[in-house]
Amino acid sequence: MIRQLRLSSGLVMLAYVTMHLLNHAVGLVSLEAMEDVLWYIFRIWSNRPAQVLLYGSFLIHYGLALWALWQRRSLRLRSSELSQIILGFAIPILLARHVVGTRIADNFLHTDTGYYAYLLWVYFVDSPGHGYWQMLVLVVAWAHAMIGLHFWLRVRPWYAHIAPAALVVAVLVPVLSLLGMIEAGLHVAALAKDPNWTREAFARMTLPSPETKRTLEAITDGLSWFFGGTVAAVLLARIARRAWRRRHGVVRIDYADGRWIEVTPGTSVLEASRIAGIPHASVCGGRGRCSTCRVRVRGERNSIDPPSADELRVLRRIGARPNIRLACMLRPRGRIEVTPLLPPLALAADGRRRVDFMQGSEREIAILFADIRGFTALAEGRLPYDVVFVLNRYFAAMGRAIESAGGRVDKFIGDGVMALFGIESSPRTACREALAAARLMSERLDELNRSLQAELDRPLRIGIGVHCGPVIVGEMGYGSAATITAIGDAVNTASRLEALTKEYECELVVSEETVARAGIDLSDHPRHEIEIRGKREMLAVTTIKRAADLPAPGAVLIRHSEPAETATPVAAAPP
Ligand code: FES
Protein backbone atom coordinates (compact mmCIF):
# COMPACT_ATOMS: atom_id res chain seq x y z
CA MET A 1 0.00 0.00 0.00
CA ILE A 2 2.89 2.32 0.82
CA ARG A 3 4.33 1.78 -2.64
CA GLN A 4 0.97 2.47 -4.28
CA LEU A 5 0.46 5.60 -2.18
CA ARG A 6 3.92 6.91 -3.01
CA LEU A 7 3.38 6.28 -6.69
CA SER A 8 -0.14 7.71 -6.88
CA SER A 9 0.72 10.82 -4.88
CA GLY A 10 3.81 11.35 -7.06
CA LEU A 11 1.75 11.00 -10.23
CA VAL A 12 -0.82 13.56 -9.01
CA MET A 13 1.94 16.08 -8.36
CA LEU A 14 3.60 15.23 -11.67
CA ALA A 15 0.33 15.98 -13.49
CA TYR A 16 0.14 19.37 -11.77
CA VAL A 17 3.79 20.24 -12.39
CA THR A 18 3.59 19.17 -16.05
CA MET A 19 0.59 21.43 -16.67
CA HIS A 20 2.30 24.28 -14.83
CA LEU A 21 5.49 23.92 -16.86
CA LEU A 22 3.64 23.67 -20.15
CA ASN A 23 1.78 26.82 -19.11
CA HIS A 24 5.18 28.56 -18.70
CA ALA A 25 6.15 27.34 -22.17
CA VAL A 26 3.18 29.24 -23.64
CA GLY A 27 5.18 32.36 -22.76
CA LEU A 28 6.98 31.71 -26.06
CA VAL A 29 3.70 32.73 -27.71
CA SER A 30 2.73 35.73 -25.57
CA LEU A 31 2.06 36.89 -22.02
CA GLU A 32 -1.65 37.06 -22.77
CA ALA A 33 -1.68 33.45 -24.04
CA MET A 34 0.06 32.40 -20.83
CA GLU A 35 -2.63 34.05 -18.72
CA ASP A 36 -5.39 32.53 -20.91
CA VAL A 37 -4.03 28.99 -20.50
CA LEU A 38 -3.59 29.63 -16.79
CA TRP A 39 -7.32 30.36 -16.53
CA TYR A 40 -8.14 26.80 -17.72
CA ILE A 41 -5.50 25.17 -15.53
CA PHE A 42 -6.73 27.16 -12.56
CA ARG A 43 -10.26 25.87 -13.20
CA ILE A 44 -8.96 22.28 -13.00
CA TRP A 45 -6.96 22.66 -9.80
CA SER A 46 -8.78 25.35 -7.84
CA ASN A 47 -11.88 23.38 -6.85
CA ARG A 48 -11.95 21.88 -3.37
CA PRO A 49 -11.58 18.15 -4.28
CA ALA A 50 -8.63 18.91 -6.59
CA GLN A 51 -6.95 21.00 -3.91
CA VAL A 52 -7.44 18.27 -1.30
CA LEU A 53 -5.99 15.78 -3.81
CA LEU A 54 -2.98 17.97 -4.63
CA TYR A 55 -2.05 19.11 -1.14
CA GLY A 56 -2.92 15.69 0.30
CA SER A 57 -0.63 14.07 -2.28
CA PHE A 58 2.16 16.41 -1.29
CA LEU A 59 1.78 15.60 2.42
CA ILE A 60 1.58 11.85 1.76
CA HIS A 61 4.56 11.91 -0.61
CA TYR A 62 6.66 13.96 1.79
CA GLY A 63 5.70 11.81 4.79
CA LEU A 64 6.52 8.62 2.89
CA ALA A 65 9.86 10.08 1.79
CA LEU A 66 10.76 10.72 5.44
CA TRP A 67 9.62 7.20 6.28
CA ALA A 68 11.78 5.74 3.47
CA LEU A 69 14.75 7.76 4.71
CA TRP A 70 14.24 6.30 8.17
CA GLN A 71 13.76 2.78 6.83
CA ARG A 72 16.99 2.68 4.82
CA ARG A 73 19.80 1.27 6.88
CA SER A 74 22.46 2.65 4.56
CA LEU A 75 22.72 5.78 2.47
CA ARG A 76 25.36 4.28 0.22
CA LEU A 77 23.30 4.52 -2.91
CA ARG A 78 23.85 4.79 -6.62
CA SER A 79 24.21 8.38 -7.69
CA SER A 80 20.80 8.43 -9.42
CA GLU A 81 19.04 7.19 -6.27
CA LEU A 82 20.92 9.62 -4.04
CA SER A 83 20.17 12.51 -6.41
CA GLN A 84 16.49 11.66 -6.36
CA ILE A 85 16.41 11.74 -2.57
CA ILE A 86 18.40 14.99 -2.26
CA LEU A 87 16.42 16.73 -5.00
CA GLY A 88 13.14 15.52 -3.49
CA PHE A 89 13.90 16.94 -0.04
CA ALA A 90 15.18 20.17 -1.57
CA ILE A 91 11.89 20.87 -3.39
CA PRO A 92 9.71 22.02 -0.45
CA ILE A 93 12.51 24.20 0.91
CA LEU A 94 13.15 25.80 -2.49
CA LEU A 95 9.45 26.12 -3.24
CA ALA A 96 8.35 27.59 0.10
CA ARG A 97 8.72 31.24 -0.98
CA HIS A 98 6.74 30.74 -4.19
CA VAL A 99 3.86 28.91 -2.51
CA VAL A 100 3.70 31.38 0.38
CA GLY A 101 3.82 34.39 -2.00
CA THR A 102 0.99 33.06 -4.17
CA ARG A 103 -1.36 30.48 -2.61
CA ILE A 104 -0.99 31.41 1.07
CA ALA A 105 -0.93 35.18 0.42
CA ASP A 106 -4.06 35.01 -1.78
CA ASN A 107 -6.01 32.53 0.36
CA PHE A 108 -5.18 33.72 3.86
CA LEU A 109 -3.77 37.28 3.66
CA HIS A 110 -6.23 38.62 1.08
CA THR A 111 -3.78 39.73 -1.58
CA ASP A 112 -4.78 39.49 -5.24
CA THR A 113 -1.90 39.87 -7.66
CA GLY A 114 -3.16 37.77 -10.54
CA TYR A 115 -0.29 35.54 -11.53
CA TYR A 116 2.11 35.84 -14.45
CA ALA A 117 2.34 39.64 -14.95
CA TYR A 118 3.06 40.31 -11.27
CA LEU A 119 5.32 37.29 -10.67
CA LEU A 120 7.34 37.95 -13.81
CA TRP A 121 7.71 41.58 -12.74
CA VAL A 122 9.04 40.33 -9.35
CA TYR A 123 11.38 37.78 -10.99
CA PHE A 124 12.68 39.92 -13.84
CA VAL A 125 12.46 43.49 -12.53
CA ASP A 126 12.06 43.78 -8.77
CA SER A 127 14.24 40.92 -7.50
CA PRO A 128 15.98 38.84 -10.20
CA GLY A 129 17.58 36.68 -7.46
CA HIS A 130 14.13 35.19 -6.81
CA GLY A 131 13.76 34.61 -10.54
CA TYR A 132 16.93 32.49 -10.69
CA TRP A 133 15.77 30.68 -7.58
CA GLN A 134 12.45 29.89 -9.24
CA MET A 135 14.16 28.51 -12.33
CA LEU A 136 16.28 26.30 -10.10
CA VAL A 137 13.13 24.95 -8.38
CA LEU A 138 11.65 24.15 -11.76
CA VAL A 139 14.68 22.09 -12.82
CA VAL A 140 15.01 20.37 -9.42
CA ALA A 141 11.33 19.38 -9.23
CA TRP A 142 11.29 18.10 -12.79
CA ALA A 143 14.54 16.14 -12.40
CA HIS A 144 13.24 14.51 -9.22
CA ALA A 145 10.02 13.50 -10.96
CA MET A 146 11.80 12.15 -14.04
CA ILE A 147 14.21 10.01 -12.02
CA GLY A 148 11.27 8.58 -10.06
CA LEU A 149 9.34 7.92 -13.27
CA HIS A 150 12.39 6.23 -14.78
CA PHE A 151 12.79 3.93 -11.76
CA TRP A 152 9.11 3.06 -11.93
CA LEU A 153 9.00 2.28 -15.63
CA ARG A 154 12.39 0.77 -16.30
CA VAL A 155 11.27 -2.72 -15.28
CA ARG A 156 8.46 -2.71 -17.88
CA PRO A 157 9.28 -4.72 -21.02
CA TRP A 158 8.08 -1.93 -23.36
CA TYR A 159 10.07 0.82 -21.66
CA ALA A 160 13.24 0.20 -23.66
CA HIS A 161 11.27 0.95 -26.86
CA ILE A 162 9.90 4.28 -25.72
CA ALA A 163 12.92 5.37 -23.65
CA PRO A 164 14.54 7.51 -26.40
CA ALA A 165 11.27 9.36 -27.12
CA ALA A 166 10.59 9.70 -23.38
CA LEU A 167 14.04 11.22 -22.88
CA VAL A 168 13.33 13.81 -25.56
CA VAL A 169 10.05 14.77 -23.84
CA ALA A 170 11.75 14.80 -20.42
CA VAL A 171 14.32 17.30 -21.70
CA LEU A 172 11.99 19.36 -23.89
CA VAL A 173 9.38 20.14 -21.22
CA PRO A 174 11.68 22.01 -18.81
CA VAL A 175 13.67 23.63 -21.63
CA LEU A 176 10.53 25.01 -23.29
CA SER A 177 9.17 25.98 -19.90
CA LEU A 178 12.30 27.98 -19.03
CA LEU A 179 12.39 29.57 -22.47
CA GLY A 180 8.72 30.55 -22.14
CA MET A 181 9.35 32.01 -18.71
CA ILE A 182 12.38 34.00 -19.93
CA GLU A 183 10.64 35.26 -23.05
CA ALA A 184 7.58 36.43 -21.11
CA GLY A 185 9.78 37.81 -18.30
CA LEU A 186 11.81 39.93 -20.73
CA HIS A 187 8.57 41.16 -22.27
CA VAL A 188 7.29 42.23 -18.82
CA ALA A 189 10.64 43.90 -18.07
CA ALA A 190 10.33 45.90 -21.30
CA LEU A 191 6.74 46.90 -20.45
CA ALA A 192 7.75 47.89 -16.92
CA LYS A 193 10.04 50.58 -18.31
CA ASP A 194 6.85 52.50 -18.95
CA PRO A 195 5.65 53.80 -15.53
CA ASN A 196 2.08 53.99 -16.87
CA TRP A 197 2.02 50.25 -17.54
CA THR A 198 3.19 49.45 -14.03
CA ARG A 199 0.75 51.88 -12.49
CA GLU A 200 -2.19 50.50 -14.47
CA ALA A 201 -1.20 46.88 -13.88
CA PHE A 202 -0.76 47.36 -10.14
CA ALA A 203 -3.99 49.33 -9.88
CA ARG A 204 -5.89 46.15 -10.77
CA MET A 205 -4.14 44.17 -8.01
CA THR A 206 -4.29 44.00 -4.23
CA LEU A 207 -0.57 44.07 -3.49
CA PRO A 208 0.83 42.87 -0.16
CA SER A 209 1.37 45.69 2.33
CA PRO A 210 4.80 46.01 4.01
CA GLU A 211 3.34 44.31 7.08
CA THR A 212 1.91 41.48 4.96
CA LYS A 213 5.29 41.12 3.29
CA ARG A 214 6.92 40.69 6.69
CA THR A 215 4.34 38.07 7.64
CA LEU A 216 4.94 36.22 4.36
CA GLU A 217 8.70 36.29 4.97
CA ALA A 218 8.18 34.88 8.46
CA ILE A 219 5.95 32.08 7.11
CA THR A 220 8.51 31.30 4.37
CA ASP A 221 11.31 31.07 6.94
CA GLY A 222 9.17 28.94 9.24
CA LEU A 223 8.28 26.50 6.47
CA SER A 224 11.91 26.26 5.27
CA TRP A 225 13.05 25.51 8.82
CA PHE A 226 10.25 23.01 9.25
CA PHE A 227 11.11 21.05 6.09
CA GLY A 228 14.85 21.24 6.71
CA GLY A 229 14.29 20.32 10.36
CA THR A 230 12.23 17.20 9.63
CA VAL A 231 14.99 15.84 7.38
CA ALA A 232 17.65 16.69 9.95
CA ALA A 233 15.55 15.03 12.69
CA VAL A 234 15.28 11.80 10.72
CA LEU A 235 19.02 11.82 9.97
CA LEU A 236 19.81 12.35 13.67
CA ALA A 237 17.37 9.60 14.62
CA ARG A 238 19.15 7.27 12.19
CA ILE A 239 22.49 8.00 13.87
CA ALA A 240 20.97 7.30 17.30
CA ARG A 241 19.41 4.05 16.06
CA ARG A 242 22.68 2.91 14.57
CA ALA A 243 24.54 3.56 17.83
CA TRP A 244 21.86 1.75 19.81
CA ARG A 245 21.90 -1.24 17.46
CA ARG A 246 25.68 -1.46 17.52
CA ARG A 247 25.48 -1.82 21.28
CA HIS A 248 22.90 -4.58 20.90
CA GLY A 249 24.63 -6.86 18.41
CA VAL A 250 25.32 -7.23 14.72
CA VAL A 251 24.34 -9.72 12.02
CA ARG A 252 26.89 -11.42 9.76
CA ILE A 253 26.17 -11.91 6.06
CA ASP A 254 28.51 -14.22 4.15
CA TYR A 255 28.82 -14.10 0.38
CA ALA A 256 29.48 -17.19 -1.71
CA ASP A 257 32.86 -15.85 -2.88
CA GLY A 258 34.17 -15.72 0.70
CA ARG A 259 33.52 -12.06 1.46
CA TRP A 260 31.41 -11.18 4.49
CA ILE A 261 30.09 -8.17 6.33
CA GLU A 262 28.62 -7.46 9.75
CA VAL A 263 25.66 -5.09 9.80
CA THR A 264 23.13 -3.94 12.34
CA PRO A 265 19.89 -5.96 12.47
CA GLY A 266 17.28 -4.53 10.14
CA THR A 267 19.78 -3.84 7.35
CA SER A 268 18.69 -5.39 4.05
CA VAL A 269 21.07 -7.67 2.18
CA LEU A 270 21.19 -5.15 -0.68
CA GLU A 271 22.15 -2.38 1.74
CA ALA A 272 24.78 -4.69 3.22
CA SER A 273 26.23 -5.30 -0.25
CA ARG A 274 26.41 -1.57 -0.84
CA ILE A 275 28.02 -0.90 2.54
CA ALA A 276 30.60 -3.59 1.80
CA GLY A 277 31.18 -2.27 -1.72
CA ILE A 278 30.08 -5.60 -3.23
CA PRO A 279 28.50 -4.94 -6.64
CA HIS A 280 24.90 -6.14 -6.56
CA ALA A 281 22.27 -5.79 -9.30
CA SER A 282 19.32 -3.57 -8.36
CA VAL A 283 17.62 -2.20 -11.44
CA CYS A 284 14.63 -0.75 -9.54
CA GLY A 285 16.89 0.75 -6.88
CA GLY A 286 15.75 -1.52 -4.05
CA ARG A 287 12.00 -1.01 -4.45
CA GLY A 288 11.19 -4.73 -4.63
CA ARG A 289 9.96 -4.64 -8.21
CA CYS A 290 12.64 -5.80 -10.62
CA SER A 291 13.86 -9.00 -8.90
CA THR A 292 17.40 -8.43 -10.24
CA CYS A 293 18.74 -8.38 -6.66
CA ARG A 294 17.57 -11.98 -6.11
CA VAL A 295 19.83 -14.10 -3.91
CA ARG A 296 20.00 -17.71 -2.85
CA VAL A 297 19.99 -17.86 0.94
CA ARG A 298 21.44 -20.41 3.31
CA GLY A 299 21.24 -20.18 7.07
CA GLU A 300 19.27 -21.00 10.15
CA ARG A 301 15.52 -20.94 9.68
CA ASN A 302 15.06 -18.36 12.45
CA SER A 303 17.65 -16.03 10.89
CA ILE A 304 15.15 -14.69 8.39
CA ASP A 305 11.50 -13.73 8.37
CA PRO A 306 9.13 -15.11 5.73
CA PRO A 307 8.68 -12.86 2.68
CA SER A 308 6.04 -10.13 2.80
CA ALA A 309 3.06 -10.30 0.45
CA ASP A 310 4.77 -7.87 -1.96
CA GLU A 311 8.00 -9.84 -2.04
CA LEU A 312 6.10 -13.09 -2.40
CA ARG A 313 4.28 -11.78 -5.45
CA VAL A 314 7.58 -10.97 -7.19
CA LEU A 315 9.12 -14.29 -6.12
CA ARG A 316 6.14 -16.20 -7.52
CA ARG A 317 6.38 -14.29 -10.77
CA ILE A 318 9.93 -15.54 -11.31
CA GLY A 319 9.19 -19.09 -10.14
CA ALA A 320 11.55 -18.84 -7.16
CA ARG A 321 12.01 -21.66 -4.72
CA PRO A 322 11.79 -20.95 -0.97
CA ASN A 323 15.56 -20.41 -0.68
CA ILE A 324 15.46 -17.52 -3.17
CA ARG A 325 14.76 -14.05 -1.78
CA LEU A 326 14.96 -10.44 -2.88
CA ALA A 327 18.08 -8.88 -1.35
CA CYS A 328 16.39 -5.49 -1.05
CA MET A 329 13.55 -6.93 1.04
CA LEU A 330 15.47 -9.47 3.08
CA ARG A 331 16.57 -8.17 6.50
CA PRO A 332 18.26 -11.05 8.30
CA ARG A 333 18.05 -11.41 12.08
CA GLY A 334 20.89 -13.94 12.29
CA ARG A 335 23.87 -15.15 10.31
CA ILE A 336 23.13 -16.15 6.70
CA GLU A 337 25.03 -16.88 3.50
CA VAL A 338 23.82 -15.35 0.25
CA THR A 339 24.65 -15.88 -3.41
CA PRO A 340 23.52 -13.14 -5.81
CA LEU A 341 21.93 -14.91 -8.77
CA LEU A 342 22.35 -12.24 -11.42
CA PRO A 343 25.48 -10.36 -12.43
CA PRO A 344 25.89 -6.83 -11.00
CA LEU A 345 25.18 -5.25 -14.38
CA ALA A 346 21.96 -7.22 -14.93
CA LEU A 347 19.29 -5.43 -16.94
CA ALA A 348 15.55 -5.15 -16.37
CA ALA A 349 15.06 -7.99 -18.90
CA ASP A 350 17.19 -10.30 -16.73
CA GLY A 351 14.85 -9.56 -13.85
CA ARG A 352 11.94 -10.92 -15.87
CA ARG A 353 13.73 -14.26 -16.26
CA ARG A 354 12.39 -17.10 -14.20
CA VAL A 355 14.79 -18.72 -11.79
CA ASP A 356 13.67 -22.31 -12.23
CA PHE A 357 15.86 -22.81 -15.28
CA MET A 358 18.75 -21.11 -13.52
CA GLN A 359 18.66 -23.90 -11.00
CA GLY A 360 19.25 -26.46 -13.71
CA SER A 361 16.94 -27.98 -16.28
CA GLU A 362 17.27 -29.86 -19.53
CA ARG A 363 16.05 -27.88 -22.51
CA GLU A 364 16.25 -27.99 -26.26
CA ILE A 365 17.99 -24.88 -27.43
CA ALA A 366 20.13 -23.68 -30.33
CA ILE A 367 23.80 -22.90 -29.79
CA LEU A 368 25.94 -20.63 -31.93
CA PHE A 369 29.73 -20.42 -31.93
CA ALA A 370 31.65 -17.81 -33.90
CA ASP A 371 35.35 -17.14 -34.23
CA ILE A 372 37.52 -14.65 -36.12
CA ARG A 373 39.48 -16.34 -38.89
CA GLY A 374 43.24 -15.75 -38.82
CA PHE A 375 43.14 -13.58 -35.74
CA THR A 376 46.69 -14.48 -34.69
CA ALA A 377 48.05 -13.09 -37.97
CA LEU A 378 45.86 -10.03 -37.58
CA ALA A 379 47.19 -9.33 -34.06
CA GLU A 380 50.83 -9.78 -35.05
CA GLY A 381 52.81 -6.56 -35.22
CA ARG A 382 49.98 -4.49 -33.72
CA LEU A 383 50.07 -2.53 -30.51
CA PRO A 384 48.07 -4.19 -27.74
CA TYR A 385 45.58 -1.34 -27.52
CA ASP A 386 44.95 -1.57 -31.29
CA VAL A 387 44.12 -5.24 -30.87
CA VAL A 388 41.85 -4.53 -27.90
CA PHE A 389 40.15 -1.69 -29.81
CA VAL A 390 39.40 -3.88 -32.84
CA LEU A 391 38.28 -6.80 -30.67
CA ASN A 392 35.93 -4.65 -28.61
CA ARG A 393 34.36 -3.19 -31.75
CA TYR A 394 33.94 -6.74 -33.06
CA PHE A 395 32.45 -8.02 -29.78
CA ALA A 396 30.05 -5.07 -29.59
CA ALA A 397 28.86 -5.63 -33.17
CA MET A 398 28.45 -9.39 -32.71
CA GLY A 399 26.85 -9.03 -29.26
CA ARG A 400 24.29 -6.57 -30.59
CA ALA A 401 23.51 -8.83 -33.57
CA ILE A 402 22.94 -11.82 -31.27
CA GLU A 403 20.77 -9.89 -28.85
CA SER A 404 18.70 -8.21 -31.50
CA ALA A 405 17.98 -11.65 -32.99
CA GLY A 406 16.69 -12.77 -29.57
CA GLY A 407 19.76 -14.68 -28.31
CA ARG A 408 21.85 -14.43 -25.21
CA VAL A 409 25.61 -13.99 -25.36
CA ASP A 410 26.90 -16.79 -23.18
CA LYS A 411 30.54 -15.86 -23.19
CA PHE A 412 33.38 -14.37 -25.16
CA ILE A 413 36.29 -16.77 -25.30
CA GLY A 414 39.46 -15.21 -26.68
CA ASP A 415 38.31 -13.91 -30.08
CA GLY A 416 35.33 -16.27 -30.13
CA VAL A 417 31.77 -15.94 -28.95
CA MET A 418 29.22 -18.48 -27.75
CA ALA A 419 25.52 -17.65 -27.78
CA LEU A 420 22.38 -19.46 -26.67
CA PHE A 421 18.94 -19.22 -28.24
CA GLY A 422 15.60 -20.44 -26.91
CA ILE A 423 16.33 -20.53 -23.19
CA GLU A 424 12.82 -19.26 -22.68
CA SER A 425 11.17 -20.06 -26.00
CA SER A 426 10.46 -23.08 -28.20
CA PRO A 427 13.16 -25.03 -30.09
CA ARG A 428 11.69 -23.81 -33.39
CA THR A 429 11.99 -20.19 -32.35
CA ALA A 430 15.49 -20.93 -31.04
CA CYS A 431 16.65 -22.27 -34.42
CA ARG A 432 15.09 -19.41 -36.36
CA GLU A 433 16.66 -16.86 -34.02
CA ALA A 434 20.08 -18.53 -34.25
CA LEU A 435 20.00 -18.42 -38.06
CA ALA A 436 18.75 -14.83 -37.99
CA ALA A 437 21.67 -14.01 -35.68
CA ALA A 438 24.17 -15.66 -38.06
CA ARG A 439 22.80 -13.56 -40.90
CA LEU A 440 22.92 -10.36 -38.84
CA MET A 441 26.45 -11.10 -37.63
CA SER A 442 27.63 -11.45 -41.22
CA GLU A 443 25.97 -8.16 -42.18
CA ARG A 444 27.34 -6.34 -39.14
CA LEU A 445 30.80 -7.71 -39.89
CA ASP A 446 30.61 -6.17 -43.38
CA GLU A 447 29.68 -2.82 -41.82
CA LEU A 448 32.49 -3.16 -39.28
CA ASN A 449 35.01 -3.94 -41.99
CA ARG A 450 33.94 -0.82 -43.86
CA SER A 451 34.35 1.37 -40.78
CA LEU A 452 37.72 -0.20 -39.84
CA GLN A 453 39.07 -0.09 -43.39
CA ALA A 454 41.89 2.29 -42.41
CA GLU A 455 42.91 0.19 -39.41
CA LEU A 456 42.92 -3.27 -40.98
CA ASP A 457 45.31 -4.72 -43.59
CA ARG A 458 42.58 -7.12 -44.64
CA PRO A 459 38.92 -7.42 -43.65
CA LEU A 460 37.90 -9.49 -40.64
CA ARG A 461 36.35 -12.85 -41.48
CA ILE A 462 34.40 -15.13 -39.21
CA GLY A 463 33.33 -18.73 -39.02
CA ILE A 464 29.97 -19.58 -37.45
CA GLY A 465 28.66 -22.96 -36.32
CA VAL A 466 25.01 -23.50 -35.33
CA HIS A 467 23.45 -26.63 -33.90
CA CYS A 468 20.46 -27.44 -31.70
CA GLY A 469 19.68 -30.18 -29.24
CA PRO A 470 19.05 -31.01 -25.61
CA VAL A 471 21.46 -29.43 -23.14
CA ILE A 472 21.53 -28.73 -19.43
CA VAL A 473 20.92 -25.05 -18.79
CA GLY A 474 21.62 -23.55 -15.41
CA GLU A 475 23.65 -21.16 -13.39
CA MET A 476 27.20 -22.48 -13.23
CA GLY A 477 30.49 -21.11 -12.01
CA TYR A 478 31.76 -19.77 -8.75
CA GLY A 479 31.06 -16.60 -6.85
CA SER A 480 30.76 -13.52 -9.02
CA ALA A 481 31.87 -15.59 -12.04
CA ALA A 482 28.73 -17.77 -11.82
CA THR A 483 26.50 -17.27 -14.86
CA ILE A 484 23.74 -19.00 -16.77
CA THR A 485 25.26 -21.29 -19.34
CA ALA A 486 24.65 -24.59 -21.13
CA ILE A 487 26.54 -27.86 -21.25
CA GLY A 488 25.97 -30.95 -23.32
CA ASP A 489 26.73 -32.72 -26.58
CA ALA A 490 24.89 -30.12 -28.62
CA VAL A 491 27.25 -27.41 -27.34
CA ASN A 492 30.32 -29.44 -28.34
CA THR A 493 28.79 -30.16 -31.74
CA ALA A 494 28.08 -26.48 -32.41
CA SER A 495 31.70 -25.69 -31.54
CA ARG A 496 32.84 -28.46 -33.91
CA LEU A 497 30.68 -27.03 -36.72
CA GLU A 498 32.28 -23.64 -36.23
CA ALA A 499 35.73 -25.25 -36.60
CA LEU A 500 34.55 -26.92 -39.84
CA THR A 501 34.04 -23.53 -41.50
CA LYS A 502 37.83 -23.49 -42.10
CA GLU A 503 37.74 -26.87 -43.81
CA TYR A 504 34.76 -25.99 -46.02
CA GLU A 505 35.98 -22.41 -46.55
CA CYS A 506 32.61 -20.97 -45.74
CA GLU A 507 31.18 -18.57 -43.18
CA LEU A 508 28.45 -20.79 -41.73
CA VAL A 509 28.06 -24.50 -41.03
CA VAL A 510 24.63 -25.36 -39.69
CA SER A 511 23.26 -28.77 -38.82
CA GLU A 512 20.35 -29.98 -40.91
CA GLU A 513 18.37 -30.53 -37.76
CA THR A 514 18.59 -26.82 -37.01
CA VAL A 515 17.54 -25.92 -40.56
CA ALA A 516 14.61 -28.37 -40.41
CA ARG A 517 13.42 -27.05 -37.07
CA ALA A 518 13.67 -23.48 -38.28
CA GLY A 519 11.55 -24.44 -41.32
CA ILE A 520 13.88 -22.70 -43.74
CA ASP A 521 14.68 -24.02 -47.19
CA LEU A 522 18.47 -24.11 -47.71
CA SER A 523 18.42 -26.91 -50.31
CA ASP A 524 20.35 -24.80 -52.84
CA HIS A 525 23.39 -24.75 -50.50
CA PRO A 526 25.92 -27.65 -50.32
CA ARG A 527 25.04 -30.50 -47.97
CA HIS A 528 27.63 -32.77 -46.28
CA GLU A 529 27.67 -35.70 -43.91
CA ILE A 530 30.26 -35.35 -41.18
CA GLU A 531 31.57 -37.51 -38.43
CA ILE A 532 31.30 -36.27 -34.87
CA ARG A 533 33.78 -37.63 -32.38
CA GLY A 534 32.18 -40.12 -30.00
CA LYS A 535 29.08 -40.60 -32.17
CA ARG A 536 28.28 -43.53 -34.40
CA GLU A 537 25.85 -41.72 -36.67
CA MET A 538 26.92 -39.17 -39.22
CA LEU A 539 25.63 -35.61 -38.88
CA ALA A 540 24.14 -33.87 -41.92
CA VAL A 541 25.17 -30.24 -42.25
CA THR A 542 24.68 -27.40 -44.71
CA THR A 543 27.49 -25.02 -45.57
CA ILE A 544 26.80 -21.43 -46.50
CA LYS A 545 29.45 -19.30 -48.12
CA ARG A 546 28.13 -16.02 -46.70
CA ALA A 547 25.73 -16.07 -43.78
CA ALA A 548 24.37 -12.72 -44.99
CA ASP A 549 22.88 -14.69 -47.93
CA LEU A 550 20.51 -16.56 -45.62
CA PRO A 551 16.87 -15.71 -46.25
CA ALA A 552 15.81 -12.52 -44.48
CA PRO A 553 13.72 -13.21 -41.37
CA GLY A 554 10.56 -11.89 -43.01
CA ALA A 555 11.13 -13.79 -46.25
CA VAL A 556 12.01 -17.28 -45.04
CA LEU A 557 10.50 -20.08 -47.00
CA ILE A 558 8.55 -22.25 -44.60
CA ARG A 559 8.74 -25.85 -45.81
CA HIS A 560 5.94 -27.12 -43.63
CA SER A 561 3.74 -25.55 -41.05
CA GLU A 562 4.36 -26.74 -37.56
CA PRO A 563 2.02 -26.37 -34.66
CA ALA A 564 3.26 -23.85 -32.13
CA GLU A 565 5.60 -25.56 -29.71
CA THR A 566 5.53 -24.85 -26.07
CA ALA A 567 8.47 -23.56 -24.12
CA THR A 568 8.41 -26.14 -21.36
CA PRO A 569 11.69 -27.72 -20.30
CA VAL A 570 12.39 -31.31 -21.33
CA ALA A 571 12.93 -32.32 -17.73
CA ALA A 572 13.40 -30.38 -14.58
CA ALA A 573 16.59 -31.03 -12.67
CA PRO A 574 16.13 -32.62 -9.26
CA PRO A 575 15.89 -30.09 -6.45
S1 FES B 1 16.44 -4.12 -6.35
FE1 FES B 1 14.71 -4.43 -7.58
S2 FES B 1 13.68 -6.02 -6.53
FE2 FES B 1 15.38 -5.68 -5.27
- Cα Rg: 31 Å
User: What fraction, in percent, of the residue positions are helical?
Assistant: 40-55%
Shape from CA axes?
globular
Number of strands: 14
Distance between the termini: 35 Å
SS-derived structural category = alpha+beta
Which distinct ligands sit in these coordinates?
A: FE2/S2 (inorganic) cluster
The proportion of strand residues reads: 5-15%
Describe what this molecule looks like in 3D.
The chain is of the alpha+beta class and 575 residues long. It folds into 3 domains: 2-240, no CATH class; 251-348, Ubiquitin-like (UB roll); 358-572, 2-Layer Sandwich (Alpha-Beta Plaits), CATH 3.30.70.1230. The protein is 53% helix and 14% strand. It contains 17 helices and 14 strands. The strands form 2 sheets. Strands 6, 7, 8, 9, 10, 11, 12, 13 and 14 form a 9-stranded mixed beta sheet that branches. Strands 2-1-5-3-4 form a 5-stranded mixed beta sheet, covered by helices on one side. The radius of gyration is 31 Å and the shape is globular. It binds FE2/S2 (inorganic) cluster (FES). FE2/S2 (inorganic) cluster binds next to loops.
List keywords for this structure.
575 residues; alpha+beta; Ubiquitin-like (UB roll); Alpha-Beta Plaits; 3 domains; 9-stranded mixed sheet; 5-stranded mixed sheet; 17 helices; 14 strands; globular; disordered C terminus; binds FE2/S2 (inorganic) cluster
Write the layout of secondary structure elements.
Layout: H1 2-25, H2 31-45, H3 48-71, H4 79-108, H5 116-126, H6 128-153, H7 159-192, H8 195-203, H9 210-247, E1 251-255, E2 260-263, H10 269-276, E3 294-299, H11 309-317, E4 324-326, E5 336-340, H12 348-351, E6 361-372, H13 375-379, H14 384-404, E7 408-413, E8 416-421, H15 427-451, E9 462-476, E10 483-487, H16 489-503, E11 508-511, H17 512-518, E12 527-530, E13 539-544, E14 571-572
Helix pairs in contact: 1-2, 1-3, 1-6, 1-7, 4-6, 4-9, 5-6, 5-7, 6-7, 14-15, 15-17
